[in-house]
Request: fold
Amino acid sequence: MKHLLFKITGCPFDKLNDEALIREYIKMAAQQSLSTLLEVSSHKFDPQGVTAVALLAESHISIHTWPETGTAVCDAFTCSDSGAPQAAAECLMTCLGGEDMTGELIMR
Reply:
């Protein structure tokens, strides 16, 4: 089991504050992680920010955004040997237009 905790910084406000985009990006990340997407749940906060969780057959991917600081804090947890949480992180980094990403991979 692989659990990647990561933070993406330097993202444009508009991308981080768009719930529909975040939902699409997390679906793309699930596909890139070689996981089976079951469902996406999300919430748009007022005045800004989005939280979304992709429920996977293999576990989950989550994203929490702070548009005012250009930051997204995420995790990708895959329980299968073939899961690729790093691919999910790279997908989100690209989609969000981030400038930097830091993270830690935990083997569970």
